[in-house]
Amino acid sequence: MPNNASTADHVTDFQRLLQSVDNNPDILPDVDGPHAWLHETLQEMTEILALQDAHRAGLQANSKRLRELMVRGADFARQVRSLIRGRLGPRNDKLVEFRIPVLGRPRALPSVTQPPPPPEAPAPDEVKS
What we know:
This protein is mainly alpha-helical. Helices cover 54% and strands 0% of the residues.
């Protein structure tokens, strides 16, 4: 999920996620609950935004409710994305459609071979007198 700072960013992100899930019902049958909750949250957010435009006097109360809905919507979006990632797997290229980062291929571990032991120093010759 992108780092959303504004209400418009949240609304756009939620709309895109819902649209992507709607476009892929066959591979995502188990996201119905969080999908519906996110949809309801998004509807309430757009209603409040419309109210804010119409009634600037009640802006403070509506803004507080809107902040609460942004947090709740972000939680639902996180649940939906988690279910999608669990269903498709963390390396599936289809995750990009849902704005979920895809894990790359596993990195090769460095070889664990140990260097050969240093050669032993020759024994000092006995002193001859």
